[in-house]
Amino acid sequence: MRPGAPAEPLGDALPLPDEKTQLKRWYATAQIPSPMGGFLEPLRVRSEDDGSGMVIFECSASAMRFEMTIPAATRGEKKAVKDHQDAGEDPNCPRHHPLQRLNRVGPYLVCPMCGVRYGKVLA
Ligand SMILES: [Zn+2]
């Protein structure tokens, strides 16, 4: 490793068990209980090349790290976002409640909590 090179601190995360239930909690902005006891603190949300997202958590009790995949947007979700854009409204994340505004990331509209691309910025 080059001296001064940044360490990759998030490279050793484990897949999060019970992903489906945990996803529901994530969309509801609820606390995520850790499989190790304590709670999972979100460290980072990132976008994958296929339009899906990934959240990295750290367990408050064990400091173990877990990763959770956020499925890519469905056709229906993309259409709902596009309809809001066409109506001149700022689209929200179709999954997050309370409402979460989508951010512009390059040409895409991305939920900062999901990392998922739900649409494209209108030209
Ligand atoms: Zn979201």
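^ zinc ion complex. DSSP finds two helices and eight strands in the chain. The helical segments are 19-27, 75-86.
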